[in-house]
Write a structure and sequence with these properties.
Helix content is 47%, strand content 0%. It is mainly α. Among the domains are: 75 residues; 85 residues, Non-ribosomal Peptide Synthetase Peptidyl Carrier Protein, Chain A; 42 residues, no CATH class. It has twelve helices and no strands.
């Protein structure tokens, strides 16, 4: 059976890939990347970004070598123009760039930095492993998988090391998985509830019954007593009283007596009644109100002591 003819203009073209675009368009990936050795972009980060963009744009190493002068400014640009003819491979450029713009003894300092980078007290193992592997990736000679496992394990918090047995770890991913398992257990421990007591259980016969405290045997008690008798506690000798101490004590005693007297006076004053105004707290001589006539002997108001019938009955 003959196949129907299809109009060539209706055939679907395959979706274009980035490699099918003109070369100039692919270099737009690098338009925002410039290195002048003075900006916040370090030499290490610059080299890392170049390799990331090279892989994303699918530009070959040979093409990127020719484009390198567009990625530098100022002194690094002059350096690139002087050295570019000596680079036949991408590794030649990376080696020369590291030797020129990386800090002196960079690899040695980086190794020490990796050794000192331990896990923080509240740092999750995922964050810690990623941070440490980022440092390891900067090494010129990458660490093997067993070396990475050993370095990460040795820098873990001790509580992780108690849970994870190093000999059972097969990879960095496995180590991280065990660490996350420990973190889940630790999170559950924070919300763990103790079992209910017997009196609050539906089935007291199966409720948790805490074991009583161990009793001390009589033999042990007698041995402790014999030791205490054989080696009694020595009392510290009392310091002899000096003149200063005696004067201080007498001052304290006087102060105490004065306080008691003041308290008694306060209690007594609340019971005193003024015969002039009949109010508590003061006597007649201290009264500031208008004077009245009264018997100074019995307090009868309106008469004096001389004419008081209560006080002059015998006269």
């Amino acid at each position: 059976m003959p196949q129907p003819k299809v109009n060539p203009s209706l055939k679907e073209d395959p979706s274009p890939t980035i490699s099918s675009y003109p070369t100039d368009f692919r270099f737009h990936f690098f338009s925002s990347l410039k290195f002048d050795n003075t900006t916040s972009l370090s030499a290490e980060d610059f080299l890392l970004r170049i390799n990331e963009k090279r892989k994303a744009s699918k530009i070959s190493e040979e093409e990127l070598l020719l484009y390198l002068p567009e990625l530098f400014q100022d002194t690094p640009l002059n350096w690139c123009r002087l050295e570019i003819d000596n680079w036949t491979q991408w590794n030649d450029f990376e080696t020369a760039f590291r030797a020129t713009f990386f800090p002196s003894n960079y690899q040695e300092k980086l190794k020490k930095e990796i050794e000192k980078r331990t896990q923080g007290e509240y740092e999750k193992i995922l964050d810690f492993v990623i941070s440490l592997k980022t440092l390891m990736k900067k090494l010129t000679h990458p660490l093997s998988e067993p070396e990475q496992i050993s370095t990460i394990y040795n820098n873990l918090l001790p509580k992780y090391q108690l849970y994870i047995r190093k000999s059972e770890v097969t990879s960095v991913a496995h180590l991280m998985s065990l660490g996350q398992e420990f973190e889940r257990i630790e999170d559950r421990a924070k919300t763990f509830r103790s079992p209910p007591p017997v009196d609050r259980s539906m089935f007291p016969e199966v409720a948790y019954k805490p074991s009583p405290l161990p009793k001390v045997s009589s033999k042990k008690m007698s041995s402790v007593a014999s030791v205490q008798q054989a080696y009694p506690k020595q009392q510290r000798p009392k310091k002899p009283k000096t003149k200063n101490n005696a004067s201080t004590n007498s001052a304290k005693e006087e102060t105490g007596i004065t306080a008691i007297e003041k308290k008694n006076d306060a209690d007594t004053s609340s019971k005193i009644v003024c015969w002039n105004c009949l109010e508590n707290g003061h006597r007649y001589p201290a009264c500031i109100k208008t004077r009245t006539i009264f018997c100074y002997h019995c307090g009868t108001r309106g008469i004096t002591r001389k004419h008081c019938p209560n006080c002059n009955k015998g006269n």
